[in-house]
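Entry 14. Two folds queued back to back today. First construct below, sequence then structure tokens.
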Amino acid sequence: MSKPKKEIQIDKQTDEIKQDAALKEAEASKQAVEKQAVADKSAEEQQIQAAEEQVVAEKVSEEKAESEQVVETKAESEQAAEAKADEAVEAKADGTVEQAEEAKNGEAGEQAAEAKAEQAAEAKEGEAGEQAAEAKEGEEGEVAPRVEQADAASEAEKPEEETPLLRVINLKEWFPIKQSFNKAKSVYLKAVDGVSFDLKQGKTIGIVGESGCGKTTLGRTILRLYTPTDGQIIFEGKHIEKLKGEELRRMRPHFQMIFQDPYASLSPRLTVGEIVGEAVKTHKIVPKEDYKDYVVDIMLKCGLQPHYFERYPHEFSGGQRQRICIAKALALKPKLVICDEPVSALDVSIQAQVINLFKDLQESDNLAYIFISHDLSVVEHISDEVGVMYLGNMVEFGSKEAIFSNPMHPYTEALFSAVPIPDPDTKLKRIILQGDIPSPAHPPKGCKFHTRCSKCMDICSEVEPEFKDYGGGHFVACHLYQ
């Protein structure tokens, strides 16, 4: 016999109530588990924080003990020095008394000796004249050796050549395209392939070349944003190509980079003050109480007003954003700044302002720059030395005057022939390069430029040219001069 409809409805309602109760109970248990997990996590964080505070306290106590020990050692050394000084004074006084007694006793003997000395002086007058003549001749004979000795001493006193701030030796950065257990079958894109140069403190090296030749990769590898495949990077006499972890982090403030795109290199969620001062806090450049004053001072130095401190990047023009990037790099007091096409996205008038800012900061802070650019006129204006890159190699390097007045490599000649001259009556002798740029993953044998060079010889396709100095620090890798 079937149940009445009313009882069926009551049963359904009862089942729904039970299901709701079960769901609520499951949610309550889930919330309890989550609360317990949060409580456990907070407890662990508190334990970690307590451990860190204990480590800091132990470190402070150790430093305090060391400072007290240094003070005690210094006090003991000062006491010892005072004791030695007192002994020296007493000894000197005793010696003076003894000398006075000896002088008194010897006065009588000296009076008797004076008479004998007068007699002997008359006998020696003749001999003295002869000795004087001989001495004069001897002095004249010794003049030349003394002059030679003085010259040798002056040469020895000449200061040694200035040690470069940065030395790059045969630097390579290869990116794997296809890897195999058999290394001979592995394929690498050779973005930087054996670059060498020196950079002195307070100087600027300009790096030029076609897009894709490895300029930016070279800068990033020097800064250790990439790990070098091979070669050496020596900064202030210290090898940094293999540094890792804390050692590399401590070196970071000494070299900074200004990126090409000021729109992409600034966080839109941070204010200008936070962008410039973020690394200052991380590396503890200044005390906390001086933080804001220091950041504002850096901003003023870069042409940014103090009221920009609370503004966001989207409120600024391209030139002002690039100034923010410069301030961000300079806030860490670096010695080397790598500028990756910092003015390529700016109009001409703003370019001039930023370039002048770079030169003013270099004079005031003695900065060294590696200036990467396609604009040869800008490179000529700001650089002391210029390097020309092609397909990962440095094909020519030298002083600005030597490179621009006497380009020796055929690629450099072709590159400079593309620079427009603002004179309608002057006809350009443009050198048109034939063919396409070879793949850096499969570069041609011998000289990498021989496939596009109008002066190519048989040896160029077989033997890689040596990067050689041809006088005055003008380095060229070309068989035309070898």
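Second construct, same run, same settings:
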Amino acid sequence: MKKTLYGGLALGVTGSYSGMAQNCSSGTKPENTSAGTRPRKGKPVMGLRCTPIPEVRIAVIGLGRGGGAVERLSQIEGTRIVALCDLRSDRIANSRERLKKLGRPEAATYTGEEDWKKVCERDDIDLIYNATPWHLHVPVALHAMKHGKHAVVEVPAALTLDDCWALVDTAEETQRHCMMLENCCYDFFELATLNMARKGLFGEIYHGEGAYIHDLRSSKHNKNGYYKMWRLEHSKLHSGDPYPTHGLGPVAQIMGINRGDRFDYLTSMSTNQYGLTLYAENKFGKDSPEAKATYRLGDINNTLIRTVNGHTLLVVHDTTSPRPYDRIHKISGTKGFAVKYPEEKIALDPHAHEFLKPEEFKAIMAQYGHPLSKYIGEKAKAVGGHGGMDYIMDWRLIYCLRNGLPLDQDVYDAATWSCITELSERSLENRSNSVDVPDFTRGAWQDAKPWPVIDMETVFC
């Protein structure tokens, strides 16, 4: 297999692990430990390279969202689905049928409450694809890495600061990849603006904005929706921003976070809660348990992050307001500006007081379309998965594993982007006072280079 210029980053606590780590190396210098970090237990994984895997043997755990992953991964060369794991037998049956229709071998199946541990302990698996509910993201990822597997995990990778550190420490101890499946980094406009940023179109980018604005009131209150209604239960127990990475991830990559810059501190503020109670009153009645329940999660949360280089990022969360879907994706630089929602637009000096005209916008998008989306974009749209970005993410993941390349997102990104969940709640519960963001790289960010634009001209499927 040919190798090509990588666009990547790497990922992922403590305990014994199986001995596959000798086949990987990062080449990273010893850390320059910053204040507030924890002692390193293993070796850095910035730019981690592992032995190429010609055929990536995969187990998918969690077949709600993971069912789509089974279909996508089965259409990527060099993959084999070895095991399927879910508590619901109907989801197991659906994924088995998908494999059959795609002419793929039958996979072993697991349906027990603790069967994910058995899956991670098998000796014929290279990659654990973890699409479970939030509370299982970290346990599954840690068990996978400790048993010699690479781990990819749905968003957010972790809900607490301790769990973020656990992922980092385990990835460093085991020298395994641990990547958060932040698919929005692979959407077409996000990739294009990344390309524009790397080529200097926006100048120095000093501010970015991202969001997860998605009306989930009906889904949260649906007893047949999220398993044991875990998302509604989280809204009862926590404030802050529980789901920051869809908007944050692409902007953080563009701004070189953990690669030349890092988050320094944040402050967070939320509105009161209205949406879940009003929805419950209208659907179940004012005297219903759902309407009388206490929900701590404010309807709209705004978290403002400042970096050590003096740049800022605004992250917005809202899943309970009657408003259209929106991830914002706003980039502000010394030479230009871009925004995705509600309509993709770009403005550039010396005429930045107005957006580019439609024909100008079309031309610049053609010029700066990301090589990755140009190369695999049409197939991605045909296969599907949030308009194709899920397929691009999965294809790129498999390509890097097969070629022994660093991954585009690493465990430091997973921890840095996910830690906003706990830190935003800490700030909010302390009258929005600022809270320091740990340096999960332990100083490695200072020498690391921002994620480059991938050269796809020499790549083949």
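Quick look at the second one. The mean pLDDT is 92. The first strand starts at residue 24 and ends at 25.
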